[in-house]
Amino acid sequence: MTDESIRGKVVIITGASSGIGKATAIHLAQLGARLSLGARRMDSLENIRQEIENSGGEVLITRTDVTQRADVRRLIDKTIESYGRIDVLVNNAGIMPLSRIDKLQFDEWDQMIDTNIKGVLYAIGAVVPQMKAQKSGHVINIASLAGHRVPVNSGSAVYSATKFAVRAISEGFRQEVKPYRIRTTIISPGATETELPDRVTDPDIKKNMQGLLDLAISPDSVARAIAYAISQPEAYDINEILIRPNGQVN
User: Which of the residues 83, 122, 159, 236 is marked catalytic?
Assistant: First the structure.
């Protein structure tokens, strides 16, 4: 299966070793994209690479910790050296160790800020010179429904703050890069089957999450939304997509 609007496009995906990142990599490979995948777990990336190449796809893998600017720079440089351009960046890497603020999980706050905010900025900063030179490109930032409101009793205050920040960064970036014809999209998923809840250590928060997780949509659903945004004609800029399980109220 290919899609002429996606076939041959060079797509970078961060956090590509599992969940939404992995599903997006496999889906876009099926549509004919040329991929550059970054994540910390090289064993998982290697398995994805083999799966994509066995199906005839083209893919690079690079160990990437998005909290490390040098790692992100290496991912981008390797992509340009191999493919000569960058058409799409999917800023997917993120973590979600939910907890109430009064639990004082300072280390977890730092990790979320470093990954969910600074990691997004590092990747945008690394690709924008190439996209400006091309006068084209597409930056897709994965936010969350938690970036639209703070769910009650969710322990989501800091996580939601990072995702509100992703949306603010995306909107500011959209305005700034219009002269270069760079498109921007925010994808805000609701409950999704990923490893993110595994980082939650607070038993009360985990208990409160369970009903919502039982409704969770598959990462493939989000991958299809990403592909939809990429596949639109260059004259269109799909700025934000919210996608949630049909039974999810908030």
Answer: 159
